Amino acid sequence: MSEHPITLTVNGRQHTRTVPAQRLLRDFLREDLALTGTKGACEDGMCGSCSVHLDGLVVKSCLVLAVEADGASVTTIEGLASGGQLHPVQQALIDNFGFQCGFCTPGVAMTMASLIEDQPELDADQAREALVGNICRCTGYVRIVASLLDAGRRVRQARATAEGGDDAR
Q1: Taking CA atoms, which of 1, 3, 74, 121 is between 20 and 30 Å from 82?
Q2: What angle in degrees, to the nearest 10, is found between the helix axes of 105-118 and 88-95?
Q3: Separation CA 16–CA 19 (nearest Å)
Q4: DSSP code of 169?
Q5: pTM assigned to the model
Q6: Of the candidates 151, 150, 109, 153, the residue with the CA atom closest to the CA atom of residue 131
């Protein structure tokens, strides 16, 4: 099997490695970089537990080869928090008891974070539809949806405060 040099920026840090041509991005993150928050469950892109941001887009890292991500920027669940503060999605999942076993949580959080960046004003139906690519076997989704709606509220509130207003809706 051939090997290829790759360079990726993962959670703000550049990493250069030589990887087998068939190495999945998920396995590169977990095994080569020891970023074990990215999970693997279904092995075929159906569950979303391996979701990461690749150049700002949510991807299922079990469907991306590491060599395909060469030169890209990747954010994993470990890189979602910033400056010692949890991301609003992470905090909302905690505050709303939006997880049980936690296996799907990293992928759910990555999907939610991407979504509320562009669309923080979701309703419950939009939230459920947005999470369709993430399978949770424990919660029944009610608390996950509540967490997503709460995270959107937090983002709106933070943006309103940053703009000098106090209307967070």
Answers
A1: 121
A2: 120
A3: 10
A4: -
A5: 0.92
A6: 109
